[in-house]
Each structure stands twice: as C-alpha cells, then as structure tokens.
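Late entry, evening session. Most of the bench is empty. Finally got around to the prediction I had been postponing all week. Sequence below, unchanged from the version circulated by S.P.
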Amino acid sequence: MNADKLKSLQIERGQKQRPTGVIWTIVIVVIVVTLGAVYLARPKGGTETRTVKAGAKAETIATPTVADNLAVAASTNAAPVSAKDSVLTVSGYIINRERIELSPRFMGVVTWIGVKKGDAVTNGQVVVLLDDTEFKARLRQADGAVANAQAAVSKAELDLERVNQLAKTDIASKEAQDNARLALDASQAALKESEGARSVAQTYLDWCVIRSPINGVVLEKLVNPNELVTPQSFGGLRGPSTALMAVADPQDLQVEIDLNEADLSKISLKQKCRVSPEAYPDKVYDGYVVEIAPEANRAKGTLQIKVQIQNPDKFLTPELSAKVEFLK
C-alpha cells in the first residue's frame, strides 16, 4: 500500500521541464525596461554637459550639439542691424494736401446727386445737377433777343445801301446817309448786347451742372436731392447748405505735425523722413519736409510742419495719427 502512495506522488519526466514561452516573455520585459531607463537618463535640451573638477571647485562646461552649431551659423549669416539714423521722432495726423468743397454759384435746388461717400471721381465728372428750369427759359428769351437784333442789323444794312444809291444821284442828302450809317452801328451794338445776355443765360445754365475738379474720392456728401443750396450762409443752424460735397486726392497725402520749438533746429526743408501709421506700425513710407510754417503758435510753443508722403496706399487714412522719423 505504501508503494502505491509513492507511485502516485511521483512526477513524470515530461512534466519536469519549465515552459520556454514564459522565460522569453520575462527576458523581453527586462530588455524593454532597461531601454526605457537608458532613454530617460539621457540629458535634456540642446547641449550636453560634463563636469570638470579643478581642485575643490567643480565647473560645468556645455558641449554644443549639431543643432547649436547650425543655429550659430544661421545667426552669423543674418544681415547686421542698421544703425539708428533718425534725429527726431514725433507724431502727427495724416491729412489731404487739398480738401475741396464743391459749392453752388447761386441759390438753387438739388435735383440729382450721382455719387456717395467713398466713391472715386474723375476730373470733369458730373456729380450734382441743380434745377435749371428758370435758366433754360432765360436762354430761350435771350435767343429771341439775339434774333431780333440780327434782323435789325439786316434792315439797317439795307437802309444804308439804299441811301448810298440815292446819294449818288443827289436825291438823298448827306444827312440821310449819316443817319443810316449811325442806325446800322446802333443795331450792331444791340446785337452784341443781346449776344452777351445770351452768354450769361448759357453760363448760368452750365453752372447747374456741378463737375469734379480733380481725380479723387468723395470724402463727404453734404446735401440730398430736393434740398435748397446757396453759395453763402445767412446765419442760423437751419439755413440752406453752402456746400454740396467734399472731394480730395487720396494719392496726395501729408502728415501735419505741431513741432516743439526746442526741436526746430533739427528740421529743414526737403529733409527726408520715414512715416509709419499708428494703425499699421509695420508699414513704412518715405517722405520729406515740404512746409515749415512762417509763424509759431505762441500759446503752444509749437511750429506747424508738413511732411509729404511719397507713394501712399490704401493703408493711409486721413485724420489718423502717424509717427514720423526725421532722418540725418
């Protein structure tokens, strides 16, 4: 019976060997953990460091890497920073060199406006029409007066010719001949007068058509159709408008500066400048001093300077501020 128990406890030969799959799994895990530890132990950043001991004092020296060498080479090839070449920097306001307000030459009623604020206009373009009914009637009246004067001149010429024929036969007197000549002169003068009146009527009719005097942009529209306009103000806040619209050339801009009198010695006519609008500080434009006021402002202690901007573009807006650097 004891032999049977020992036989049941005996391990067979095939079960004594350990499975090889588990061993390889353990080996792979150990290798992965080792590689991870080596990777985490590497120094961070773009440089390698090593410590050199000199006596009791330790010194850390940075060893440049390939990336550091490339960065140094790139910085060496970069353009050098230019030296500061401005003598003064001040702020001012961008303005149109010329702001033209179109006004009527007589009191009238606006019948049509062909542009709005911000529209581009060309020299000679029709922008406003005024009521011309009265002036057309005056022109027709002047045409009739001219026709009557021309008829009177023709009659006076015939009378003078007839009197001259009669004077050759001593039928008409010398006095009659002189009177006929004077009547012709008077009729010719009347013709010139009527022609002048017609020119005046035509001029007023032409003034009913308002044209742009320049190539530019409409800065402001001051009236609307059916409004009464007049060339002068009669006072009060509800009187007729004295201007139709304002236009200016967007390619003719300046910077207006109130310069402190202490800095006046640094400025001269035709001096070159750099202009940069405050709204777009990365935009820089060339310019030059075009005007120095002949009189200072005693209250402010300033003198007005104007700088002409060369080759302006859409980024320059009138009445916005700009920085001006006056160059050496």
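Two things to note before I forget:
Confidence is low (pLDDT under 50) at residues 45-83.
Residues 2-41 form one domain.
Will write this up properly tomorrow.
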